[in-house]
Amino acid sequence: MAAAQPLLRRKLRKRGAAEPGYLEHVEERFGRYAAPTAPGRLWIHAVSLGETRAAAILVDALRAVQPDLRLLLTHGTATGRAEGARLLGAGDAQAWLPWDTPGAVDRFLNHFHPAAGILMETEVWPNMAAACRDRGIPLALANARLSEKSLAGARRLGSLSRPAYAALSAVWAQTEGDARRLAQAGATVQGVFGNLKFDADPDAAQLARGRAWRAAQQPPVVMFASSREGEEAQLLPAIAGRREVQWLLVPRHPQRFDEVAALAAQAGFSTSRRSVWHDAPPAADVWIGDSIGEMPLYYGLADAALLGGSFAPMGGQNLIEAAACGCPVVMGPHTFNFSEAAELALEAGAAKRAASMKEAVEAAVALVRDDAAREAAAKAGERFAEAHRGRRARRGMRC
Questions:
Q1: Are residues 237 and 312 in the same domain?
Q2: 391 pLDDT band (50/70/90 cuts)?
Q3: CB-CB neighbours of 64 under 10 Å
Q4: Which residue of 45, 104, 105, 311 sits 20 to 30 Å from the alpha carbon of 342, by its own alpha carbon?
Q5: Cα separation of 140 and 128, whole Å?
Q6: Average pLDDT, stretch 290-311?
Q7: 138 vs 278, more confident
Q8: Residues 54-68: what's their mean pLDDT?
Q9: Same structural domain for residues 164 and 259?
Q10: In terms of residue numbers, what domain contains 378?
Q11: Residue 349 near residue 377 (C-beta atoms within 8 A)
């Protein structure tokens, strides 16, 4: 990590060209913080957008119990930090979590002196875990998950990962499978409380606006939700000539918006980007969802969604928000990041699984052209999401 420092600065400059947020407060990445601060805050680390939204549910529950709670929120991505800014109250602080070198970690802890730390979902770093243990700072892992793939990686680096997991004061797992794998990695698991993301409420105004746009749209809309690198190259040939539906691509990462729009144009599709829409999306072969924080709008606009990250071996993105918005999902073969949620959604009738992109496109088109089947799947998704709510109250009681 120490040797990689110059490369990390170069990486930030490259990312910052597409997302300016990465160019802000760069020295915080190395444990150097300029703003004065007060000790004793509860520190919550949410690396990216999804973890920050899960943290928001936990923060609401904690503030209900202790209204004067002062928080320190840390992040690793620009989208996570932007979302986290909405959670800040009087007396709270926000910063980048430093890269995991001993010096940077010591500077972080010396500056903020947190009373305790909560890591969201997966973010366990060896130097940070060891430093918190040595200083007597309780460090917990909340809404914790660990896939078989990640467990295999942890085992390969067991001399680093096992002490890091063992240093955690508490671990609250999403599923029994996660609990078993976390225990195998060296953690002591205190309980299994489900996935906090089931308690997230989709933005009602965004959802209503998307549905209003959908009502004015003639052909049904199929969305590729949170697509990852390499997946659009699978999709575009599969939808060539498929004009019976309107296609909507929403890339997972903002730095890829231009790239995805260019790929669609190179494949011969006319495109229109969300950033230029006004009263409604204009006519185009492919719409590009190039905005952040508007997934409820896109799910409201779509009749069905292909699940990004599941058509390449990346483990799949979160399908819970789609279900809560009443948008049926067609998943690819790779859903190991959310394996239990994926299987439960399949059992509930809120999702379908396809072995390939071509098969998924066929399944999605068939679904949106069958009004009764699509409506049944949408209602199943809403029931599925509602049935698994309540994690916020259970988790808050345990904290």
A1: yes
A2: low
A3: 12
A4: 45
A5: 12
A6: 96
A7: 138
A8: 94
A9: no
A10: 204-387
A11: yes
Q: Would you say 77 and 49 are in contact if contact means Cβ atoms under 8 Å apart?
A: yes
Name the 3-class secondary structure at 329.
Answer: strand
Enter the tokens of residue 285.
Answer: 């072969």
Quick one: which of 390, 380, 316 has its CA closest to 50? 316
Q: Which of 19, 24, 27, 51 is catalytic?
A: 51
- Whether 294 and 242 share a structural domain: yes
The two structure tokens encoding residue 154: 């942890």
| Half-sphere exposure at residue 317, Cβ-oriented, CA atoms within 13 angstroms | 26
CATH number for 44: 3.40.50.11720
- The tens digit of pLDDT for each residue in 84-132 reads 999 999 999 999 999 999 999 999 999 999 999 999 999 999 999 999 9
157 and 78 co-located in one domain: yes
d(Cα 197, Cα 194) in Å, to the nearest integer? 9
Into how many domains does the chain fold? Answer: 2
In the beta sheet, which residues pair with residue 192? 173
Task: Return all residues near 303 (Cβ < 8 A) that are at least 6 apart.
Answer: 214, 220, 221, 222, 245, 327, 328, 367, 368, 374
Both 265 and 167 in one domain: the answer is no
Spatial distance between the Cα atoms of 275 and 45, rounded to a whole number of angstroms: 30
Q: Is 51 noted as a catalytic residue in this protein?
A: yes
Q: Which amino acid is at 69?
A: L
Q: What is the pTM of this model?
A: 0.86
Pair 217, 176 in one domain: no
